Amino acid sequence: MRAACWMGKQKVEVHEVPDPRILNARDCIVRVTSTAICGSDLHLYNGFVPTMQKGDVLGHEFMGEVVEVGHAVRNLRVGDRVVVPFPIACGACNACERQMFSLCENSNPNAWMAEKLWGHSPAGIFGYSHLLGGYAGGQAEYVRVPFADVGPIKVPDGMSDDEALFLSDILPTGYMGAEMCDIQPGDVVAVWGCGPVGQFAIASAYLLGAERVIAIDRFPYRLRVARERAGAETLNYEEVNVLEALNELTGGRGPDACIDAVGLEAHGHGPIYAYDRAKQMVKSETGRPIALREAIMACRNGGTVSVIGVYGGFIDKFPMGSLMNRSLTLRTGQCHVQRYMAPLLERIQGGEIDPTFIITHRTRLEDAPQMYETFLGKADDCLKVVLKN
Amino acid sequence: MRPSYGEGARAGGLAVRAPGALVGGRHLQPQGAVRHEGRALARALGWFSVGLGLAQVLAPRRVARLTGLPDDEGMQRTMRLFGLRELMSGVGLLTRPRPISFAWARVGGDLIDAALLGRELALTDQCRARLATGLATVGLAGALDVTCAVRLGQDEAPTEGRGMHVTKAITINRPVDEVRQAFGALHDRRGDLDLLRRLAGRGRGGVSFREAPGGRGTEVCVSLEADVFGGKLGEVAAKLRHNAPDQRISEALRALKALVETGVEVCSDATLERGKHPAQPTAGERRGRRERPRSGEPRHPTTWA
Lengths: 389, 305
Description:
The complex is a heterodimer. Chain A is of the alpha/beta class. In chain A, 29% of the residues lie in helices and 21% in strands. Chain A has helices at residues 39-45, 94-97, 111-118, 161-164, 170-179, 196-207, 220-228, 242-249, 271-281, 290-298, 320-325, 337-349, 368-377, and strands at 2-8, 11-16, 28-37, 56-57, 61-69, 81-84, 87-88, 124-125, 142-145, 153-154, 188-192, 212-217, 233-236, 257-260, 304-307, 329-332, 361-364, 385-388. By secondary structure, chain B is mostly helical. The longest helix of chain B has 27 residues, at 128-154.
């Protein structure tokens, strides 16, 4: 089969690789019909996630048709259309029983690597480094899906791939980011990053009852989508002092909740940005937490900071004093996608949210290398790339 | 061997209990690591070393004069070097949890100091009283250093054997009886659990099963003393290959957990093959690992074995 493979820093190539096979009774094989490039794939692309190997098949947002099932999978049949959540979860461990699927205790066969870096291991993830399992990803023609009786959800007839695809990651991730804010009536929520996850966080914050959502980015086309499609008020951090602007917009209180939908490759300006870039370059910190710092400083006393942007290892100049002395709550996590798929699918069916508004590029899997470049360079107003087979 | 942390040694939610029902908390430490006599002495000697070292580095001439040594250029250089040596052993004694080698390094230093002072005493007629006092001080320090090193060696020393001590624990979300039974029936891929069972039979290893709090299943705790070919060096080499006893026991416990909880042996495209392999499907049959489980249902692990 054909698959988009990571071949080194900023190098993705489509190669012929062996077809996946059923290895366990609880596996299924999915023929991928649609797959997307995630913002977090760019962290792999840029070489910021350790334990990648030349030849790794990328992709953790995908859906398709079931073509083979293991004999212990009772809920799926050949021919079913399914969306597959990006964290692999067994459904039986303590974490899964508590619905914290991205912390599944059984799905990462390389747990020892993650334990070295993080103390304990989270779940395995498709196409996202060896540290998180070494699973072949979904930017391919076929994928083996472990624990197929737990993760994949059937797509109802009449729902298009474009409508369903983002249930695999970014829609639930954005939603969980907003849900962690514990939004109360009248709350003002600020969202750093107007990429796809940020857009869904904005939309979800409104769905969950936010009074106002303020979105922060630097690309006019992304801010425009946030305004026109997600309904946010927008700030361009290259034009205004974000902290001052947020204070002014909230009567000096600061937003009730702040969502970091940026993660480890944040941009900024001034000496602090130069400092972070230099430290990241010499690998004395793994992330540039510019948005996170700002989100913490901006948040109102007693408010919540929700982190859904991806971080890999260690960051510097973390404003712990602000967090502690002002009674802030920090909530975070890789999305427990399985928890949100069914309710969000219902919301899509009910017309409460149309996730297709973020798609700017639809093309073939063969174009993946070019699309990574376009997405990274924010060229051609690129917001979301969907690859079709 | 060093047994694991005591059973039931968990601090129980004291704050919510009635005062009359208070159960005392306890300090958690591996049994067999109870004596710390050498540590206090090591700290005292550490500070002494740092003080002396600083004096030798910053004021070599005065220290030389004080001990009756000549204060020429060469001796000042020697003093500074000795000072650096003292600083190194001092910092080691103060910062390492069990600084045996630093204590012995101090003993070595004492011998060098004694040799220097002794030679001076034999060669010169000047300042003999000072030199003799210096020599006596070095002798006293030497005696303390030897005591410290010996006591540190006795502290926390493994009570038997010289193998690698492994203590690993995992929580399995199934009742104790089921886990115990699965453990007995499991023949894991590399035979690590079989090895553990054999070691347990010889009194060099043990496994305990206890109920996890909050209905979270069973805590399995393994503790054993394993011999590693090549001693410490062999241990390091094995760790680099992810093949040391502690790593293998961890993996075996994880495999046990996965089998009991999910009924399958968890593998990814990259871990299917021995050695380095990218995360892409493999061609051909699985090498080096058991074929996919033959029959049975998830959550009934014994049928998979």
